[in-house]
Amino acid sequence: MRVALFFLVLLGMTSWGAQKPNIVVIVADDLGYGDLSCYGAKDLKSPHLDSLMASGLRFTNFYANCPVCSPTRAALLSGKYQELVGVPGVIRTHPENNWGHLSPSATLLPQALKKEGYRTAAIGKWHLGLDEKAHPNTRGFDHFHGFLGDMMDDYYKHRRHGQHYMRLNQEKVDPEGHATDVFTNWTIDYLASEAKQNSEKPFFLYLAYNAPHTPIQPPKDWLEKVKAREEGIDEKRARLVALIEHMDDGIGKLIASLKENGQWENTLLFFVSDNGGQTNVGGNCGNLRGGKQDMYEGGIRVPACAVWPGIIKPASTGFTAVTMDIFSTAVEAAGGKNPEGLDGQSFLPLLKTGMQVARERDLFFTRREGNLRYMGEVSWAMKRGNWKLVKNSPMGPWELFDLEKDPLETTDLSERQAPVFRDLATAMRAHIQRGGAIPWQKPD
Question: What number is the average pLDDT over the span 408-417?
């Protein structure tokens, strides 16, 4: 009887205790592929993210699901293509320019992890809807401390179009200070509260910074430090560098908090940007073509890493992954079973062993956009191995590139490689039809 009881207790520890890692996902907003020193930036110092990436698996071929914000976040939290959960474009506060409505039937990552015994928290930028059905507390997060809207018009006033979107769960809150510091401090407070509870249940934390999204508004002292260090730096670039370095400092503080609380050794952490850098405000996408809003590589290839002390060996990988893969990877790491019908694929074997056979799959990228230029039309892209099909603008042509021979996407091969173009276009058309069947407008 005692032996049986011992094994039951041991089984319980495996289900609820240290065998289930805490899971942390940190999302930067508009961080370009070349905007960390570990990705080649020469005028920028990102020691904390550099150290984080050096301690885990750094991706050189990680893709955002979309070159703009809301769709990528919807894909990350649902494990599905964004248009299949009703978010083909940016969710905005003005209905005439809103291009998404998160499907009430979509299972989000916190809901899947709660089934595995996780407590769940979202801190920072939400940008997936303002109504009750889209609220983080409604969609699986036990704790929400952040900004319901999209971009902030001011990092210190925390408003959008004059509206107040800062919340502690359902309650309006009005914190003081730079938004990056606010979100960092709220995260440190949450981690401390988890440590004090000393619960056997692990936690899932989704932290989404507004930085370095516009307005490019770094704290004054950080800007002065960059200007003093980088002689002759352009003012526009200096402001963005300072905003990124300030965020890097905040991430360093929360990593230190995890370590001080004794949580670090049992934490699986993902870091990723939601899309490429905004080049017209100083963003650096490395030597890639384009940037934020583009379907070219600069708009969708992003810095990313996964860290899990004692499990992931420090390395760099060219394995191709996409934002929606984080969902299935996290659920498997938690010992759970993924919901049916996910589009994302787990890369957990890669994290645990350093090796994973890449399963052949097509990757599709969708962006619906409004205003008087786009009028709700869609830009598309598709990857199949080294081949990439692109319609970078609704008004532009379809192009075909061989990324292995032409990584800068300079030469359109759609006519010279007509059979390849037809094959990819056929698959792209089927995906467009699949997404077109899903409503993205809020029903009356």
Answer: 98
For 45-56, what is each residue's pLDDT tens digit?
A: 999 999 999 999
d(CA 264, CA 309): 7
Question: Angle 182-271-275 (CA atoms, 0-180°, nearest 5)?
Answer: 90
Structural element, H or E, at residue 6: helix 2-16
Q: What CA–CA distance (Å, rounded) separates 397 from 205?
A: 41
Burial (CB < 10 A; 0-12, 13-18, 19+), residue 175, is middle
- Nearest CA among 239, 411, 373 for reference residue 293: 373
Q: C-alpha dihedral over 34, 39, 40, 45, to 10 degrees?
A: 90
Cβ 283 vs Cβ 277: under 8 Å:
yes
Fold of 363-436: Arylsulfatase, C-terminal domain (3.30.1120)
**In angstroms, rounded to a whole number, what is the distance separating the alpha carbons of residues 377 and 243?**
33
pLDDT above 70 coverage of the chain, percent: 96
Q: If you average pLDDT over every residue of the chain, what do you get?
A: 94
Alpha helices in 354-417 (DSSP H): 371-374
- The alpha helices in 55-164, defined as continuous H runs, are 69-78, 109-114
Closest CA to 241 of 265, 219, 266: 219
Cross-strand partners of 379: 367
Residue 23 DSSP one-character state:
E
Residue 443 binned pLDDT confidence (cut-offs 50, 70, 90): confident
256 sits in the region (left: phi over 0; alpha: psi -120 to 50; else beta) called alpha
The structure tokens listed for 102 are 């998160």
Please provide the DSSP assignment of 249-281 as one string. HHHHHHHHHHHHTT-GGGEEEEEEESS---GGG
User: Measured between alpha carbons, how far is 217 from 200 in angstroms, rounded to an integer?
Assistant: 41
With tokens 């300072």, the residue in question is 242
Residue in the structure block whose two tokens are 């474009």:
89
CA dist., res. 297 & res. 279, Å (int): 13
> How far lies 365's CA from each of 10, 39, 178, 287, 305, in Å?
45, 23, 33, 21, 21
CA angle 107, 186, 100 (to 5 degrees): 35
Domain with CATH 3.30.1120.10 in the chain: 363-436
Q: Contact, 61 vs 301, CB < 8 A?
A: yes
Domain span(s) for CATH 3.40.720.10 in the chain: 21-352
Statement: residue 9 has pLDDT above 70: no
pTM check: above 0.70:
yes
CATH of domain 21-352: 3.40.720.10
HEC string for 321-366: EECCHHHHHHHHHCCCCCCCCCCCCCCHHHHHHCCCCCCCCCEEEE
